[in-house]
Protein 1
Amino acid sequence: MVAAPGWLTASIMLATVMQVLDTTIANVALPHMAASLGATQQEITWVLTSYIVASAIATPLTGWAAEVIGRRRVFAGAIAGFTLTSLLCGIATGLPEMVIYRVFQGLFGAVLIPLAQAVLLDINPRERIGQAMAIYGAGIMVGPIIGPTLGGYLTEVFNWRYVFFINLPVGLAALAGVMSFLPKESTKARRFDFTGFAMLAISIGALQLMFDRGEAVGWLESAEIWLYLGLVVSGLWAFAIHCLMADNPFIDLRMFRDRNFVMGLVFIFIIGLTLFSGLALLPPLLQKLMGYPVIETGLVMAPRGVGTMLSMLLVGRLVSRFDPRVLVAIGLALTAWSLYDMSGFETQMDARLIVTSGVMQGFGLGFVFVPLSTLTFATIAPHFRGDATAMYSLVRNVGSGVGISLVTAVLSRMMVVNHEELAGQLTATAPQVRDTLPGLLQQSPLMASIADGLVGQQAAMIAYIDNFVLMMILTLAAFPIVFLLRRPGAGRS
């Protein structure tokens, strides 16, 4: 038994919020970071993706490490390492240095999320699992959403380095709480399956590199992308065959016999795609196209977190009274609706639609996350819980990394396509040119330059809208999965 479950929960959630906050808190500060570190806008995105890739690769180690080293030691060591690497990121002087520190930060942070979820599942009785997942979901969902707001404030008032320094007091408080209230557990010998881990790590890393590099090298026209694709397919194939044949595999594939667990993994991958990619798109859209200062960008995005908090408070009570599948369907519908509203964004508009769509999206995602976590682990065997929570976090991280790379690639490609289409319509005989700019485009190079700038601005806006529509389609595609989930208590899969 845990002596102080309330204090332990608070300490766990401090560590959880600190970890997920770092996936988005640097988004708003990227332009300032690029200037300070001497990096291009494309190069500086490695500050985000290196963290996500490292976290995704290390996440499956959680179950093994907790059994062999002990959950308390792993949790405390991860918090200490994450806090230290946050300090190192804050004092970095160049891009290579920053990327290396972010990789180690991701490695330490990888175990925090699955361990937090596993501890909450263990210290709460079955009837309180829904409320426990609401608390856990609040940290997972609100952290990334308030990240841009907090990052914008710290960057504007202090310096971009404070988006990392903010972790120091939080990490120290979380470390003290975990050391004080998380009891020690017995450890057991478990051979480390290096082959299985290596195959999985290679496939995950190659997948992220394929999406990161694809746009720059021409996707399947490049031998580099074919190499990455080959590593992804062969790595996953070798991993699956090895885990089926090995006596003590890195991941026990028997847990994938649970239908709810498998459907939950598919679902959380889609949530990772839509949630984090949307958060990566909004700061550059607001700052570059709409002219919002850094701190106002954060303030405009803040209501999204308010919507998530409200839904978390509500759904924690509803999940034990209503069919969780209905709550998930409602959340998906609200999320898709918000993305539809976002497809109506224009360069010349006030912040009203940005705020309302953000509140709706935050509210919808909160309705999805808590009942989805409850459904995913409703029928999983307790001895699979450590590996299952690690796999759940892994799939969410992979979805986040793929989503960011996907929307970045779509944005770059569609900006070029849209610019060509719009510029092709601005001929001397076109009505909009003949009536509004009679002869000036031919007479004045300055007017031609201004017209080209306006065309580029509109092309970029349409490209952002294309991404919002894509995310809406992906969200709607998740609806059939709701009907494949079993309601808790309706029988084991």
Protein 2
Amino acid sequence: MKNLITWFWNFWLYLWSLRPWSHRRHEISTIVHVGSRSELPDKLGRTLYIVGDPAKWAILQCPCGCGDTIDVNLMKSRNPVWRFSVANGKPSFHPSLWVPAEKCGAHFWIRDGKIIWV
């Protein structure tokens, strides 16, 4: 009986490791300031790009792995607007970031550079 329980537990852990969101754990590794969107590279990777001075947009690649680009408004004159802060070189956003369901539907926080899935 103990072997059967161990087998089921190990099988469950294996299935859990295959969950579709398992690849979505990562951090924002770098923050780069650019003057305009035209300065953005084709592949954003784990880099957060801040566009404009003062900051108008934060642009990042969706951490779910879908490849979409997320544009986060930082201008108080437009809605919705997010608060952005940096502590020890690590970004945080408030409120959470939510990609529309017609795209990938990702919903997450960025706190101290870490992606926290909702």
Protein 3
Amino acid sequence: MPGRNVLIVYAHQEPKSMNGSLKDIVVDVMSKQGCNVVVSDLYTMKFNAAATRNDITGDLCNPQHFSYGIETKEAFKKGCLCEDILEEQRKVHDADLVILQFPLYWFSFPAIMKGWIDRVFVQGFAFDFPGCYETGLLKGKKALLSFTTGGTEEMFSKEGASGDIRYLLWPIQHGIMHFCGFQVLSPQISYAPEYVSEVKRKEMLMNWAQRLENIWEEPPIDCTPPWYFQ
């Protein structure tokens, strides 16, 4: 939709990878819709994944016993987080839709993307208590996981060796995105692109492009346990 803001948080080392192509399709399709598209290319940015006391630029609340959660919450209130965190928070604040684009590593994010989550989604910015889940501080925004796997769709089924992929996505979709208030859209999963034909890879890209044409009308999934694990 014209004027809407899209943030792509992208974690892959190779621009010509399947992940790179999936990211490029978002930029192309959403830009043609009139959206403002911003890409945080974490590897190109050399984004620091380590959550340390260097993330706070002001005085610590308790220098004798460092607590990252407490210190970053207070630093956010005072505007004393380091600039790379503040810049990413500005991007998230402005975004109507956040797309995380990544290859599945060890049933989870690449470390650099997990570090982005750890450092950017601090208490006071992304959530607070009791402001979480439906009342999370990022409510009103949409979020979507788009990722590639090494295993086939059959491997990630209930009967497959890796189990139902919904179990892998629960900590991310519910425990991070839903926790922070996002409306979580169905994931875009590109299964085993390295092991399929070129025709199949093009089909994956085409399906993604077609989905993006109507992404704003998609309803969010229900992230509550009774629905998720039925």
Protein 4
Amino acid sequence: MDNRRDFLQKGLLTLGGALVGTSLLNAKEHIGVASKKVTINQNDIILFQGDSITDNGRKRDNVEPNNTDAFGKGYAMIAASNLLNKYADKNIRVYNRGISGNKVPQLAERWATDCIDLKPNILSIMIGINDYWHKRNGNYEGSADTYKEHYKKLLDQTLTALPHVKLIIGEPFGVKNVKHVDDSWFPELARYQDVAREITKEYNAAFIPYQSIFDKAEKRANGAYWTTDGVHTTLAGANLMAQHWLETVR
């Protein structure tokens, strides 16, 4: 027994040393991804929420689920079309309620109608880039702490009304050296990304590390291949986002 205990202790020490040697970036990259999957069940309602990255030209007067016009041309449409194909036997309904320009406070203003009333079983939120960008442009006085405070209030409201909803959090991202985004965005944007990770852990959500996803994608093609301005996606970038979104569900 003592030998076994010694073996386990040595093994844990070795593992601990290896983890310490792993970069912080890699550690963040896997938070909420490898360990968290969202199960899709019969009759589930799936809601995509966010800003222009999610909106992507959808017809906002079309409020129907599973409707092409209601989804725009971005990652939400690509992910939804895959979901409806793969889970054709589950009678799921999928909505897109992203609105261009939104920050977390704008989500809160329309949350009752555009989230709570829809009663989603799975809620995907991709928000935060405008919370930073609008502050950077002088059009908003928020901060990363404000972002966290408002985000948590939004999720608390959601879980009070929908205690069993399963959450997917998309990380806000910026692809450097493509039009609007340059080195000056960092490290401040990274603090907003840290907030998204912290919220993921606190609310037991699935997490999609879009910053590292696009960083890796740039090894295959430059940033302008994936985004039009460092934030909004090209067709390839939308597919990349959808691919990784789909990896969070089963």
